[in-house]
Amino acid sequence: MKRSFWKDKRVLVTGSEGFLGHHLMPLLKKTGGRILAPAYPAVDLREPRAVQRLFRETRPDIVIHMAVHGGGIGYMKAHPASIFYDNIMMNTLMVEASRRFHVQKFVGIGTICSYPKFTPVPFKEGDLWSGYPEETNAPYGLAKKMMLVQTQIYRRQYGLNGIHLLPTNMYGPHDHFNLDSSHVIPALIIKFHEAAVSGSPEVVVWGSGRVSREFLYVGDGARAIVMATQRYEDAGPVNIGSGCETTIRELAYLIGRLTGFRGRIVWDTSKPDGQPRRRLDTSRARKAFGFQATTGLKTGLKRTIAWFKKYRPHEKNHEK
Predict the structure, then answer these.
(1) One of 140, 154, 171, 232 is an active-site residue; which one?
(2) Is the Cβ–Cβ distance between 301 and 185 less than 8 Å?
(3) What angle do CA 227, 169, 91 make, to 5 degrees?
(4) Distance (Å, whole) CA 222 – CA 300
(5) Domain spanning 3-174+215-243+279-295 has what CATH number?
(6) SS3 124
(7) Going by C-beta distance under 8 Å and a sequence separation of 6 or more, which residues neighbour residue 83?
(8) In whole angstroms, how large is the CA radius of gyration of the chain?
(9) Is 185 left (phi over 0), alpha (psi -120 to 50) or beta?
């Protein structure tokens, strides 16, 4: 970590209290920069006046924009309009304010959901515009994609130094554990843990299990953001991932074993699978700023399950 890059910098981080923020903030605090982290609902990033006031009060040198409204397939399918509106408003206002207040660097955290539904595997950044995203992810993915467009055209017209990162599905401690809105790994951990504890003979899992995903341990993802902020200067988007592909069937059986479940898995094929395959070409991140994931899936899942069993966040969510 090059502390001279961060010295005396005011770093504004949105989404700092979220899943990724729990892992990024400790790394940023070690940089020597002054870390500024507004919390929702004290600052509503969908409101122009609130965003303008935030920038006037903080006067940031660097902005890392992670705030997001999203969730798993079921949640995405049930809330497409609010997901699109919230994300596109937050992103648009944050980039515009960064331009108006002469921010030295804007780091936008995008999503793998921006890629077309049938992108050739492994996904290369140049394929981002070769088709429409998978339907259930499209409102979220397109709103994030517009942040990339805005960042690039603001660079051309106004000279805003903005970069755009495309992380794959992240998981780890402090993830959002709620069956109604979680992504696949936390949802499966809840299901298999509860079935193991209760002695249930089966667990029902959405879809066919044949689709594949790439998963990135959140600690690696946070490290990539710090490295990119410090070293990456180009307009082109950058994939952030592990480069390893796993089917949902393989994932489910692995989580079942790690949680102590000994029953059978029933696949509910009436539920959507989502995008058929996901695996990223991560060579640009490796060449441009030296990032490479170091945490294997089994190791990351063991850490996540151990944290989950200790804190049982799903029970707190249920109480709310």
Answers:
(1) 140
(2) yes
(3) 70
(4) 14
(5) 3.40.50.720
(6) coil
(7) 69, 70, 71, 76, 139, 140, 143
(8) 19
(9) alpha
* Whether residue 140 lies in the annotated active site: yes
Please state, as a whole number, how many other Cβ atoms lie within 10 Å of the Cβ of residue 110.
25
3-state secondary structure of 315: helix
Per domain, the residue ranges of the chain are 3-174+215-243+279-295
The predicted structure's pLDDT at residue 320 = 44
Which stretches of 30-79 are DSSP H helices? Answer: 48-58, 73-78
* CA within 13 Å, CB half, 205: 31
Mean pLDDT in consecutive groups of 10 residues from the start of the chain, 320 residues: 86 95 96 91 93 97 96 88 98 98 98 95 97 95 98 98 97 91 90 96 95 97 98 98 96 98 96 90 98 98 97 63
pTM of the entire structure?
0.93
Enclosing H/E stretch for 95: helix 80-100
236, amino acid identity: G
